[in-house]
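Hi R.,

Here's the chain you asked about this morning:
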Amino acid sequence: METKPQTITESEPSPSKITSPEGLKLAYRYFQGDQAKPTLVFLPGYRSDMGGSKALFLWDWAKKNNLSMLRLDYSGHGSSEGEFEDGTIGQWTQDALFVIDNITQGPLIVIGSSMGGWIGLLVATKRATRVKAYLGIAAAPDFTKWVWEEELTGEQRDRCKRDGKLLEDSPYSDEPDVMTYALFEDGKNHILLEEQIPFDNPVILLHGKADTEVPWKIAEKIKSRLKQDQCIIHYIADGEHRLSRESDLKLLETEIKKLYGL
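And the predicted structure, written out as tokens:
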């Protein structure tokens, strides 16, 4: 499960930055809207950043509706400092929590795309009193586990252990995808789908049936680990992993409006 969704060139000023406990400057953008309503938080995917098409679509939508929104880059991603190969699910989750805790106040609605869907669920469980709803776009919790066990060959696993990382051709970039052994090992500490997910508020999942990166049945597994009637899944029959087409974004907008009562 390795993705690099399309990034749109932004005609924006440089992002704001905040120094993490590890001493890295983490990039973010924050819009202050109606403080009586939850802040929208967008968490991007693996090797993606806050300049992706879904992030920008939500940014424009939030501004039009005077809703506060935060988008950010994990360490080693986008405009944030740090080396990508030093990152893990645990580190990137801590990056997200640090920016959220220091930049936002009050209730949140968290949206996570792909790997950001895993990080978003972790944020929801760790800030359960603040997160009023979660929306996953091709959410990929536990992907390090099922990629390691089901998608990699024995030779690839051996190579990853030996070299400390695995380099494979990327369908989204001229640069190879990199997955480190540390990423796989750390992922074991953040598994969500083997027991009940400790989050009680509404969950919406959008997933393409034509997604070749994250199997659509992952959405069913997420739903099975939540309370009955807590989770709604919207499958897009011809939807691929990115879910960035106009029709996909329209569906995203429709579901976000419901969460805000618009």
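The domain at 16-149+190-260 is CATH 3.40.50.1820 (Rossmann fold).

Let me know if you need anything else.
M.
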